[in-house]
Design brief:
The structure holds 2 protein chains of 2 kinds.
Chain A lengths: L2 H19 L8 E2 L2 E2 L8 H28 L2 H23 L9 E5 L11 H20 L7 E7 L2 E7 L2 H27 L8 H25 L1 H7 L4 H25 L23 E2 L3 E2 L8 E3 L6 E3 L4 H25 L26 H13 L10 H19 L4 E9 L5 E7 L2 E7 L10 E6 L1
Antiparallel strand pairs in A: 1-2, 4-5, 6-7, 8-9, 10-11, 11-12, 12-13
Helix pairs in contact in A: 1-2, 1-3, 2-3, 4-5, 5-6, 5-9, 6-8
Chain B lengths: L1 E5 L6 H15 L7 E2 L2 H8 L3 H13 L3 E3 L5 E3 L12 H17 L4 H17 L1
Antiparallel strand pairs in B: 2-4, 3-4
Helix pairs in contact in B: 1-3, 2-3
The chains are: A alpha+beta, B mainly alpha.
């Protein structure tokens, strides 16, 4: 089992632990998304609902784990697990409805409540965007000093996807990260300004404010972390920096989540009022299965989640649908934009930009590139690629894409000749390989320690 | 200063906001210069449309209590002369009798109601 598979199972385990304790960190007056008298939690019936839910959590985890192991599809296992947990929550919600209490009809608002702002003001939120903009200006004006390819994705063993360095690739990379930063700013503003205050006075109101503030801190922290990968990519940072970044990001998120869970939803853990329950100031009837909130008459965009901690959106608000569509378009379009530039066809390396070949270099090809390419083509024809002549990352990529590479080569027939054409704008030597039934254009980077680190090809008409 | 709204009341929310704020203004719980929550903020917290709060603010502004800013904020204004129409004594009495009947109909005993009225009257005389 490889690392990504193992990590999915770790994620399922951690989600199960979180789901197990979920009923403990919701508001005391909400039990599986139903407004109740807090004392209900101590009854036998409520304990039984809780017990059944927790059994369902672990059964779901085991079922998803088994499916993942049998089918070798960790993502399918994860999706199945999420569906099972949602079903368990909805079933518990239905059972809890029998204990629903009348919600207090009195709405209280503190007219003198302080106005909440992003810590340090809006500039704190927009600073990462300014950094990305500055980085973009610097990178585009120093294109010749950048490496020939930029890592855009990192795996457990370092970068595993690249794009050819170009102004367009840099702008796409930075715009993607800027959009992510913008997303976090919008959510932070939403939590502060487009959600409802529930407790109006006393310690409950103070805890609630603190909870919101900590949530905003978490969002800002993640936003600042978002700026780091493009910096490492453009400034050619060592692979270990991304590993440190991953650990620091995970550590920060975990620390904040533990703090927020300990405080309970809205900072209201064990803060029962003793009066008619106010719940979260939304009507039970407006919740679908206790999970989705739909209320067209409520101006709130964000509402507190009834199960777990944090916020969800009011699907009755038209702006939410506009946002959902916008986010979906961005999520779908972003990878397409990057792939459009990198055209990861074969060889695990980014393929050619639209106009790749610069005028031939006067000094000729880099030493060893032609021989290495001849040996590589020969090894492919023998069905046994010479991985020992490749840098580890290229070897891994070739292994991954070998069926596609072999299929391309088999369709071209036997190898006849190889001619040096010049050098592309990234410094890689360009060759044309002629086969009995077609031609390929190869780009081979200068050898590093006698090994090929950069190589790509594409068919010619 | 806490504003209370009864979501199940037959009195429209806009009217409850006007009445609640006016009580606070008359009693001095809100002083000239005090800011009020922005229209959007108050609407969000109560859970009503922005126009409901905007209408309430506009009515209080017409009465001379509030100064409304272009950005939806409102501030308590120095109110030297009453701008609200001055009703007749009979109108006062009728409204008070209607209110008493409404409260009695909801179960309050005459003696408890009389005690509350005396307390309110004393507060008025002392002010």
């Amino acid at each position: 089992m490889n690392m990504p598979n193992i990590s999915i199972f770790i994620v399922i385990f951690l989600m199960s632990v979180s789901a197990y304790f979920l009923p403990r960190y919701t508001r005391p007056e909400l039990f599986f998304g139903v407004t109740v008298d807090p004392e209900i939690r101590n009854t036998d019936d409520a304990r039984q609902i809780l017990r059944r839910y927790r059994v369902a959590v672990w059964v779901s985890a085991l079922l998803a784990g088994a499916v993942g192991l049998v089918l070798h599809r960790p993502l399918v296992a994860l999706i199945l697990y999420v569906i099972c947990i949602c079903c368990a929550l909805m079933a518990s919600h239905r059972s809890a409805l029998t204990h629903a209490a009348s919600r207090s009809t009195t709405i209280e608002v503190d007219l003198s409540a302080p106005q909440e702002q992003i810590p340090g003001g809006l500039m704190t939120g927009f600073l990462p965007l300014i950094v990305l903009f500055g980085l973009g200006l610097w990178a585009v004006s120093h294109l010749d000093q950048l490496p020939t390819r930029l890592p855009v994705h990192w795996g457990f063993n370092g970068p595993d996807r690249w794009v050819v360095t170009s102004s367009r690739a840099i702008i796409v990379l930075l715009v993607e990260h800027a959009v992510i930063c913008l997303f976090f700013i919008v959510v932070a503003l939403g939590v502060l300004h487009w959600s409802r205050r529930i407790s109006v006075s006393g310690p409950a109101a103070t805890s609630e404010r603190q909870f919101r503030r900590r949530t905003v801190f978490l969002l800002l922290a993640v936003e600042y972390f978002t700026v780091v990968p493009p910096m490492i990519s453009l400034l050619h940072g060592p692979a270990i920096t991304m590993q440190i970044w991953s650990v620091a990001l995970l550590g920060t998120i975990t620390a904040f989540l533990i703090i927020l869970m300990r405080a309970g939803q809205g900072g209201a853990r064990l803060a029962a009022t003793g009066r008619s329950p106010i719940g979260d100031r939304t009507a039970d009837a407006r919740w679908i299965g206790g999970l989705l909130y739909y209320n067209r008459t409520d101006p709130a965009v964000f509402v507190e989640k009834r199960m777990g901690i944090g916020w969800t959106v009011n699907f009755g608000n038209p702006w939410v649908w506009v946002s959902v569509v916008a986010v979906t378009v961005i999520v779908v379009a972003a990878p397409l934009t990057v792939r459009g530039d990198s055209n990861l066809a074969v060889d695990g390396q980014p393929s050619l930009p639209t106009n790749p070949i610069a005028p031939p270099r006067t000094q000729g090809a880099s030493p060893g590139t032609e021989e290495s390419l001849r040996r590589y083509i020969q090894s492919l024809e023998e069905g046994n690629p010479n991985y020992d002549e490749m840098a580890p990352q290229l070897a891994a990529a070739v292994k991954r894409q070998l069926p596609k590479i072999m299929s391309t080569l088999n369709g071209l027939g036997t190898f006849n000749s190889l001619t040096y054409q010049g050098t592309d704008t990234n410094g890689a030597d360009v060759y044309i390989a002629v086969f009995s039934r077609g031609r390929l254009e190869w780009h081979v980077g200068p050898l590093v320690g006698g090994k090929v680190a950069y190589r790509q090809f594409h068919p010619l008409p | 200063m806490i504003l209370r709204i009864d979501s199940e009341s037959t009195t429209p929310v806009y009217r409850q906001i006007v009445d609640g704020l006016r009580v606070a203004l008359v009693n001095g719980d809100l002083s000239p210069g005090d800011p009020l929550p922005a229209v959007r903020r108050l609407a969000l917290d109560i859970g009503v449309h922005f126009n409901t709060v905007a209408q309430a603010y506009r009515e209080l502004a017409r009465e001379g209590w509030l100064l409304i800013s272009a950005r939806g904020g409102a501030q308590v204004k120095e109110r030297a002369t009453p701008n609200a129409p001055k009703p007749e004594a009979a109108t006062y009495r009728r409204r008070i009798e209607e209110l008493i009947a409404q409260i009695q109909a909801s179960g309050a005993t005459p003696s408890a109601l009389a005690r509350e009225l005396r307390r309110v009257a004393k507060g008025l005389e002392d002010s």
